[in-house]
Amino acid sequence: MSEFMVDLTAINPFDRQRRTAPIEVMVDTGAEVSWLPRKALEDIGIASEKKEQFETADNRLIERDIGFAILTAEGYITTDEVVFAEEDDKNLLGVRTVEGFGVLIDSVNHRFVALSALPCPANRKLGKKKENNI
Fold first, then answer.
1. Residue 90's pLDDT is what?
2. 33: closest CA among 59, 52, 47?
3. Which residue, 74, 72, 81, 76, is CA-closest to 54?
4. Which of 21, 95, 100, 134 has its Cα between 20 and 30 A from that of 113?
5. Strand partners, 79
6. Domains, in order of start, for the chain
């Protein structure tokens, strides 16, 4: 399968006038979260909120800062966590962002396909579970 690239823009959720220029990222359903260059995120005022560890393809553990951003690509928009990628890291659009966009990935034609409706859990009643009285 060939690489599927899109332009992703990050927007500061507290000041929507502050946004990155479109950044070319690889759509990677093997990545949980999206990765964008640290400098681009810092330039628009995205703050690091926590640190997470990630396992690389060669089984190394690395630690990266995580922040919160509004992400948009191909006319779709969502809010998500975003990894502050270092210079040697790839820029990625992760599966959680894809799910937030409410799209499927057409990897043959390299495009997003909008879902007609978002799936929801099976219909169930909320409340306390009744105990069996034996």
1. 94
2. 52
3. 81
4. 21
5. 70
6. 5-114 (2.40.70.10)
Closest CA to 25 of 9, 12, 41: 9
Per-residue pLDDT of the chain (134 residues; tens, 9 = 90+): 468 899 999 999 999 999 999 999 999 988 999 999 999 999 999 999 999 999 887 889 999 999 999 999 999 999 999 999 999 999 999 999 999 999 988 888 889 998 876 666 665 555 555 555 55
The whole-model pTM stands at 0.82
Task: Please count the residues of the chain.
Answer: 134
Residue 70 in 3-state DSSP? Answer: strand
Positive or negative, the CA dihedral 33, 35, 40, 46 is positive
Give Cα separations from 13 to 47, 86, 103, 113 (angstroms). 11, 22, 22, 26
Report the amino acid identity of residue 26. M
CA atoms within 13 A on the CB side of 109: 6
Q: Where are the beta strands (DSSP E) in the chain?
A: 5-11, 23-27, 34-37, 50-55, 61-73, 76-85, 92-93, 103-106, 111-114
